[in-house]
Automatic annotation (TrEMBL):
Protein name stated in the entry: DYW domain-containing protein
Organism of derivation: Plasmodiophora brassicae (Clubroot disease agent)
Annotated PANTHER family: PENTATRICOPEPTIDE REPEAT-CONTAINING PROTEIN
Domain DYW: 914-1008
Pfam families found in the cross-reference section: DYW_deaminase, E_motif, PPR
MF terms (GO), sorted A to Z: RNA binding; zinc ion binding
GO biological process per UniProt: RNA modification
Transmembrane segments: none
InterPro entries according to UniProt: DYW_dom (IPR032867), E_motif (IPR046848), PPR_At4g14850-like_plant (IPR046960), PPR_rpt (IPR002885), TPR-like_helical_dom_sf (IPR011990)
Residue ranges of PPR repeats: 426-460, 696-730
Length: 1008
């Protein structure tokens, strides 16, 4: 119900269903003076004046003359009738005066007369009609019809849609005239509300709540309303409604449904409509039939196309005219159905249709799609015989067809032949040639031809721009590709093929052109057929990541309709590349949970990401589920076990490697040797080396590096002799391993001999890595002054070199040289975070040992200002059943009575044997000496040793641990005491070197 409605029960009046147009209104009425006797005329005399149709001014004066005499409804009715005929623009004024004088205008006949006047104004007074209807109009059949008709005549049918609900609410009789009007209003409104109202009315007809009028046009108009809003199913249901009421669908309705559904690619519904029309012998017009054939072809429904062809041949031969024939040819050509294309050609020749250019070109295109160059050539002869090669549409078809057959020479011949004649070929011909070149690996020719058109002030057709864009992408020309893309966007809304657009997106990513990439993303967002394309989504995700906008890539992932099918693997790869391990794992788990296939390649990528992040148990679980494990995955996982001192997992992997023959790979064998070395188990690394089937240079390099890390010079040199005896030549990496052994053993004499031998015997000079070892060795033996002299004499001294000087100064407790080396290192613009962390750590230790807490605090502030993490020390210790990690001042010490007991027992045993905690290594302020003592005793290395001695009590089994900081002097002393008291070897790897504590001594010689 519209607002302001006034309810009256009024006898229904018969009015014509269609009102006639009006006449021009009179000028604004200002009543002239009238005779004194007329001023007091009665209402009856005024009515007579109006009905006689005298002079308009006189009538208007009479109307005003009796207003004070309280005119009744009949008088107003007479005046409105006069206005409708002579001065329709005055009808509103009459109604206003009547309302002002208290006349009830909610009368069917009176209001319909007013509506008649409204329909005759110029322009039509539809706003007046709606306004008075909403406030005063009776909700009757005639009035609702009249208001709707006024809105429709005024060109605003959508304003009348609310009248439908009014009619339903007031239980108005829905006569054939009223329903027909509503159907037209719905059809002409072109909006969702109109479709809603059409469905509502049709459902009421189906429910017998509205009479089922047998008016074919009425149902066709309802179908138009539904089809305009893509409500195809509802439109098709009109046919079943007609079945229910026993009415034959009209040809108009069937044709309308068939054409609209075919154009919308709803071939399934269109075939249903066609079936109804065929069964009921309703004529199917050729244009609609042809649209259906093309729709089935676009849906790759060749069976339906064949069925339609049989129908045309058997039941309605007149359907197979030249236009429909061409549609059949295109359909069969698109499916490479050569047999039926040839049948169509036979029929066309039989009917004499091949002389028509559009028929010929349809066959040319079909044979091009079938890649039948000989058939295209035969049609070229037909074209020449009929003098059709002067028509550009025919030439363009041949160029495209020969291109489809990969006969580029014939296509160029046709094009050049046409260019040699006048007039100049049209844009369609040039477009075909440009597309030919772009698609067949001739991008330069495509762009040259395009430039020729532009330079000649001839605007290329918009259809050619995608091909030009493809050529620019092929030539890897981002600037020109972006310009062409913008021309497409600003042009005639030509859709770029998906493969071309995907290539452009990838080009933007490779060139880090974020602006062009964002423009392409906006373009796709506006194309409903492209925005949910999986391959395009993946391309955008990768490209935005390449442009450094991982945030946008993630947003695309989250809003993609293929979130759990295709884009998740892409995001797994991106997160793995950025080492965002948690997000990588989350994406991978979501993908697996969605049922998407996780290939071995993707599992390998995730496994390597987990291994590089030291997530070893999860990585091992993935390896167990892989059908094929690549060597790179094994190497990464083995290396992770070595870094994290996961001896038990490393042993498990070694068994796998032997069972699955991974160990036969040189890189895998070398990785196991290195990993066992990192865990402090050189003995097992030697066994791995001995068990290798073949001794490659990689294996020798790994074994010498293992000896080098542990300072085992004789063993390293023996391995070098074995390598030379095997006929292999040493490398720079071998020299580095040997010099590392000399550095850790403090053997300068052998280091110099090795350098001399490598240079003279194998032509291997000293490089930067070798210099680092030599400089550290000189600093250890001769002091920081000599190391400083060496470093300053070298051009481009590295951070490692200044770190070696700083370490030498720490060993010799030389504050001046330590500060000098420290300042040089931290002032280097390219110093890595790991070097800065170690430099601050060593310098803080120097200040702490020399009783300078203020300088220690200053360094801590310096670390904060540089954003260098000051994390508590972490130590991982290997046990038979896994690896356990401890933090300095670990919370478990306070909550685990067993750990607290083990720690107390170890400290007491050490103290009883001469150990005394060195509180000078504490770098943070403490309240008391006792607090400082406890802080020293709760270093992560000591906690790890105490726990391992308790939980791996077998004699002869070494304790293997790794610390992420330099071992402090107090922990170093404690480990020496522990190895002496327990008789157990203790291996600790810190950020500088390996420490092997045995019988109260360390392999480093107290230099690290």
């Amino acid at each position: 119900m519209l607002p302001g409605a006034v309810h009256h029960v009024i006898r229904r009046q018969r009015v014509p269903p269609r009102l006639l147009g009006g006449v021009a209104a009179l000028a604004p009425s200002v009543a002239p003076s009238v005779a004194p006797g007329d001023e007091r005329a009665s209402l009856s005399s005024a009515v007579r004046i109006i009905r006689r149709g005298e002079d308009a001014d006189r009538v208007w004066a009479a109307f005003h003359g009796v207003l004070d005499a309280k005119p009744d409804r009949r008088f107003v009715q007479a005046m409105l009738a006069y206005c409708a005929e002579r001065m329709p623009a005055k009808a509103r004024d009459v109604l206003d005066e009547a309302i002002h004088r208290g006349v009830c205008i909610a009368d069917d006949a009176l209001f319909c007369t007013f509506l008649k006047a409204c329909s005759r104004t110029k322009p039509i007074a539809f706003r007046d009609a709606l306004e008075f209807y909403k406030k005063y109009g009776p909700r009757s059949h005639n009035v609702i019809f009249g208001v709707g008709n006024v809105c429709r005549l005024a060109g605003h049918p959508q304003l009348a849609l609310e009248l439908i609900q009014d009619g339903i609410d007031q239980n108005v009789e829905f006569s054939e005239a009223l329903v027909s009007l509503f159907a037209v209003i719905c059809a002409e409104s072109h909006c969702q509300l109109a479709a809603d109202m059409a469905e509502l009315l049709l459902e009421r007809v189906r429910a017998h709540r509205i009479a089922s009028h047998r008016n074919p046009q009425l149902y066709a108009n309802f179908a138009k309303a539904l089809l305009s809003q893509n409500r195809f199913d509802a439109a098709v249901r009109i046919l079943s409604l007609l079945d229910c009421i026993g009415m034959q669908p009209s040809e108009q309705l069937g044709t309308l449904l068939l054409s609209s559904l075919a154009k919308a690619d709803r071939a399934d519904l269109a075939l249903d409509v066609f079936d109804v029309m065929a069964r009921r012998a309703i004529r199917v017009p050729a244009p609609a039939f042809g649209l259906l054939v093309s729709a089935c072809a676009r849906q790759s429904d060749l069976a339906s196309v064949q069925m339609l062809l049989r129908y045309a041949q058997e039941r309605s031969a007149d359907l197979l005219n030249d236009t429909v024939l061409c549609r059949f040819v295109s359909a069969f050509g698109s499916r490479s159905d050569v047999h039926r294309v040839r049948l169509m050609e036979f029929y066309a020749n039989l009917k004499g249709l091949m002389s028509k250019s559009f028929v010929l070109t349809s066959f040319v295109s079909a044979y091009g799609q079938c890649s039948l160059s000989t058939s295209v050539a035969a049609l070229e002869r037909v074209a020449r015989d009929n003098d059709l090669l002067q028509q550009d549409v025919v030439v363009a078809a041949f160029i495209e067809a020969y291109g489809g057959c990969c006969d580029i020479e014939a296509a160029q011949r046709i094009f050049q032949e046409r260019c040699s004649t006048k007039p100049t070929p049209d844009m369609a011909t040039f477009a075909a040639a440009i597309t030919l070149y772009a698609r067949h690996g001739m991008p330069l020719d495509a762009l040259t031809l395009f430039d020729r058109l532009e330079s000649g002030n001839r605007k290329p057709p918009s259809e050619v721009y995608p091909a030009v864009l493809s050529a620019c992408v092929t030539l890897n020309d981002p600037a020109r590709a972006t310009r062409v893309f913008q021309l497409i966007v600003d042009g005639d809304h030509i859709q770029i093929p998906r493969d071309v657009l995907q290539s452009f997106v990838s080009l933007c990513g490779r060139c880090s052109d974020l602006r062009a990439l964002s423009a392409a993303h906006r373009y796709v967002a506006g194309c409903s057929s492209l925005k949910d394309d999986d391959d395009l989504t993946n391309a955008f995700v990768l490209a935005f990541d390449q442009c450094g906008r991982l945030d946008i890539a993630k947003d695309i992932l989250l809003t993609s309709s293929s979130f759990r099918t295709l884009t998740l693997p892409t995001m797994v790869r991106i997160f793995a590349r950025h080492q965002h391990v948690d997000e990588m794992v989350s994406s991978f788990e979501s993908m697996v949970a969605s049922g998407a296939d996780a290939s071995d390649d993707l599992r390998a990528l995730v496994c390597r990401g987990l291994a590089n992040a030291d997530r070893i148990p999860m990585a091992l679980e993935l390896v167990r589920g892989m059908a094929h494990v690549g060597n790179a995955v094994v190497v990464d996982l083995v290396s992770a076990c070595g870094r994290c001192v996961h001896l038990s997992d490393l042993s498990l992997l070694y068994r796998y490697a032997n069972e699955k023959d991974w160990i036969l790979n040189n890189a895998v064998g070398g990785a196991f040797i290195q990993a066992y070395s990192l865990c402090g188990r050189v003995d097992i690394a030697e066994q791995v080396f001995r068990d290798l089937v073949t001794y490659s240079l990689d294996a020798y390099t790994a074994m010498i590096a293992a000896y080098g890390h542990h300072g085992l010079v004789p063993e390293a040199l023996a391995m070098l002799d074995q390598l030379v005896y095997a006929g292999l030549e040493p490398s720079a990496e071998i020299l580095a391993g040997l010099l590392a052994a000399c550095e850790h053993a403090g053997d300068l004499f052998r280091a110099n001999d090795i350098v001399f031998e490598f240079n003279n015997s194998w032509g291997i000079p000293v490089g930067v890595t070798h210099t680092n070892h030599l400089l550290s060795l000189h600093g250890r033996l001769s002091g920081p002054l000599e190391a400083m002299t060496m470093a300053t004499s070298l051009p481009g001294a590295t951070a490692d070199m200044w770190m070696a000087v700083l370490t030498a100064a720490r060993t010799h407790n030389d504050i001046d040289h330590a500060e000098s080396a420290f300042n040089r290192l931290v002032s280097m613009p390219d110093a890595a975070t790991c070097h800065l962390c170690r430099a601050f750590e060593v310098m803080s230790d120097v200040y702490a040992r020399n009783g300078r807490p203020d300088d220690v605090s200053r360094l801590r502030d310096g670390m904060k200002s540089r954003g260098i993490p000051d994390s508590p020390g972490r130590t991982k210790v290997s046990l038979p059943d896994g690896t356990v990690e401890f933090l300095a001042d670990d919370a478990r010490y306070y909550t685990d009575p067993g750990l607290r007991h083990d720690m107390t027992r170890l400290i007491n045993d050490l103290t009883d044997n001469g150990y005394s905690p060195d509180t000078s290594v504490i770098r943070r302020a403490t309240v008391s000496q006792e607090e400082a003592r406890q802080a020293v005793c709760l270093h992560s290395e000591k906690l790890a040793i105490a726990y391992a001695l308790k939980h791996s009590s077998r004699s002869g089994v070494p304790v293997c641990a790794a610390s992420d900081l330099l071992v402090c002097t107090d922990c170093h002393d404690a480990a020496k005491f522990a190895s002496s008291i327990t008789g157990r070897s203790i291996y600790i790897r810190d950020t500088s070197r390996h420490h092997h504590f045995h019988n109260g001594k360390c392999s480093c010689g107290d230099h690290w």
